[in-house]
Amino acid sequence: MKTALITGVAGQDGSYLAEFLLEQGYTVHGLARRIEGGAIWRLAPLLAESDETERRFFLHEGDILDAGFLRRLIDETQPDELYNLAGQSHVGLSFVQPARTMAVIATGTAMVLEALHAHCRASGRQVRFYQAGSSEMFGASPPPQNEDTPFHPRSPYGVAKLAAHNATAVYRDAYGLFACNGILFNHESPRRGENFVTRKVTLAAARIAAGMQDRLALGDLSVRRDWGHAADYVRAMWLMLQQEEPEDFVIATGQSHAIGELLEIAFGQAGLDWRRHVVADPACRRPLEVDHLCGDAGKAARLLGWRPTIGFEALIAEMMEADLARLGLQPVQAAQPAPRLMTA
Ligand code: G4F
């Protein structure tokens, strides 16, 4: 059975990926920068596994910017696959903390690649590498965006992700490392951080329904995003590493939506009219915006057999249901009877 190492395991994608790999029979080692103060709440079900002899999930605390620690972790865990998901993932925050964002994403990825390369050279082992890239790298390039679309990032986050993307390709070409860049469009779930727009909206709609707040302040409502479900997207990460040749793939639903549509579905589930509660707040706007992301994942469909299975409405309905349930409420209108399976 294979062993995987996941950096950034405590995040949304890390937790879904760990669960998916465990279901595939892997032993999973997860690296989290902090394990105290509620930072690993998404991993609670995995850590609750009581039978020590059956245990296949192991959590490690440490920083990818610590080169010696990283090399020891790879040497000791001997992974067959390494998924590099660690990093500051909020685009807006990257304008406030550009240097930290660059350090953990760009320098951090270079350090993971270098530690992995040194491990492979010293041990003679082959380790497959996945780099978590982002559609934010496309920035100003108009949709539909695919693997041939020029990168034109419009945030420190996008710039850092592009550096990590290019570094991954360099290690593939220079040293023959089996390394894949996943270029993932927005992907969400009930485990999404509360400062991303989907979760900010579903959480606020639930809290307004519960009488806990009345207003929701948002930034630019004119943008469009291609939103999929994180559980679908981690499956794509794994599929990339099961191919014969390492390649880069766009992962997206191929459908974009406006924030107004998100508001309509979420507030509708709570029995509310969003127009009565949403206010425009310049403080929530970014100095530079990416207007429209909509991916073409045709290559992933052809070569990986990957397609998303959960559509936008089902995704937002699931998030709404979870946020209402946390407050002891239920959706006023049943989730759309439409099938969860999307037509490709
Ligand atoms: O939910 P967001 O913060 O996601 P964003 O910036 O698209 O980035 C996400 O997707 C990327 C892939 O394309 C990932 F790489 C990245 O790590 C992250 O997961 O914002 C979505 C849109 C933006 O245009 C933003 O300006 O919603 C707009 N927005 C409007 N009001 C807001 C708000 N975003 C947030 N977070 N908060 C607002 O109040």
Report what the structure shows.
The protein is 40% helix and 15% strand. The chain is α/β, with parallel strands linked by helices. It has two domains: 3-189 and 226-251, Rossmann fold (3-Layer(aba) Sandwich); 197-224 and 256-291 and 312-343, UDP-galactose 4-epimerase, domain 1, CATH 3.90.25.10. Strands 3-2-1-4-5-6-11 form a seven-stranded parallel sheet, with helices on both faces. Helix 1 packs across helix 8 and helix 3 crosses helix 5. It is globular, with a radius of gyration of 20 Å. It starts with a strand and ends in an 18-residue tail after the last helix. The model has no long low-confidence stretch (mean pLDDT 96). Bound molecules: ligand G4F. Ligand G4F is lined by residues 89, 91-92, 134-136, 185-186, 195-197, 200, 218-220, 223, 225, 259, 284, 286, 289, 293.
What's the short version?
The chain is an alpha/beta fold.
SSE map:
Blueprint: E1 3-7, H1 12-23, E2 27-32, H2 44-47, E3 57-61, H3 67-77, E4 81-84, H4 91-96, H5 98-123, E5 128-134, H6 156-175, E6 179-184, E7 187-188, H7 197-209, E8 216-218, E9 224-225, E10 228-229, H8 230-241, E11 249-251, E12 257-258, H9 259-269, E13 278-280, H10 298-304, H11 312-326
Parallel strand pairs: 1-2, 1-4, 2-3, 4-5, 5-6, 6-11, 7-10, 8-13
Antiparallel strand pairs: 9-12
Helix pairs in contact: 1-8, 3-5, 5-6, 7-9, 7-11, 9-11
Ligand G4F binds next to α4 and α7.
